[in-house]
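User: Predict the structure for this protein chain, please.
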Amino acid sequence: MEEKRYLKWYNKVGYGSGDIAGNVVYALLSAFVMIFLTDTVGMNAGVVGTLIAVSKLFDGVSDIFFGSLIDKTHSKMGKARPWMLYGYFGCAVCLVAIFCIPAGVSATAQYAWFFIAYTLLNAGFYTANNIAYSALTALVTKNNQERVQMGSIRFMFAFGTSMLIQTITVGLVARFGGGAAAWRTVAIIYAIVGVISNTLSVLSVRELSPEELADEEEAKAAAQAEEKYTLIDAFGLLIRNKYYLMICGSYILMQIYTATLNMGIYYMTYILHNASLLGVFSWAINIPMIIGLLFTPTLVARFKGMYKLNLFGYTLGTIGRLGVVLAGYMGSIPLMLACTAVAAIGMSPLQGDMNALIATCSEYTYLQTGKRVDGTMYSCTSLGTKLGGGIGTALAGWLLAFSGYVGGAAVQTASCLTMLHVMYLWIPMGINLVITIVLSRLNVEQAVEERRAANHAAHRQEADV
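Assistant: Here is the predicted structure, written as structure tokens:
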């Protein structure tokens, strides 16, 4: 029997366009904030890395906090859309503030300015916006195929935006005259684009009512079982779901991977001696990724689920990144680009079906406990994006400082050049290998079917009695 459909094509495209907003923030920060701070403002890479790491201490609590608030929200716009809409205005202001660090103050004041703006952005406004955006996948449709399609379209916009920003930002900064003022202008432009795309995305979908979200058989039981729960209770629901922990861990690693590659501007500048190659490598990552996302819904159907497809894909992704390592030491840029594209193709299915995977994970918790915690469950996407991206950027700062990197220097030391190889070649390959191992255990679809069958059997027994 074919599942009921809830969305038109324009709902899916409108929803997906919301990741333009998320990625004008994420791509700009992950790819360029470190080099802006070290080479334009003159900050120490190690200190910046430490500040980013400390900032991440606030993120774990804030993700679960906002996820729980979304679950408890009842408004005319629904649970998630108000948080998505209003949270982004704070994102825009904080993004611009990061690139408006005053020049005429002490170094301590500059570090404090960056830390406050960065923490408010990541632990506050971006968290509220991004968790709400991700949770909409489970709140606007119950059709798993539509959820996969939404995820695929969303990440097409995400990778397209990331590719565009990595391609044009260096040129835009130069066009506006270079220096801090130019970076500030670029940040303002990106913030305005983000506000517009986020607002359009919010208005493109509507959330289903709680009655629509519940199966007829489960609606009455769910209403009876509904009860208030605290932040600690919500945290307990998450950590008791082993699939959530695996998804969350994988998502964090995926974002560390992305942040590490985004630091490739250092590799392009000092190893390949051409900073503009960052845009070329971005195309080699994002175009294959977008092509893979186009086919992900079809492949999920062909593989009869997400488990085998994701595992096969990341195995290919790991092999591709190993090829990048070998090509890097051979000094072959064309081969590096080809292997980068192979890795991206392999990694695309998990990106496309991640939201559907989390929705399935949330369903597993519901079948176990009778509690719907979609907002809390989707906190792993915001947590992964911010924690993973922050760790990746902080790690880059620490490794650069440890290797003796000197901001703005024309030539770097041999130890620094060796570290750039580790950062851009070895770390991404190792991360892909670890994710592949985790995915080999992540068969949440089968677990949900088994739990649903057990629950139905229990209901029949109660009815017979």
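The radius of gyration is 22 Å.
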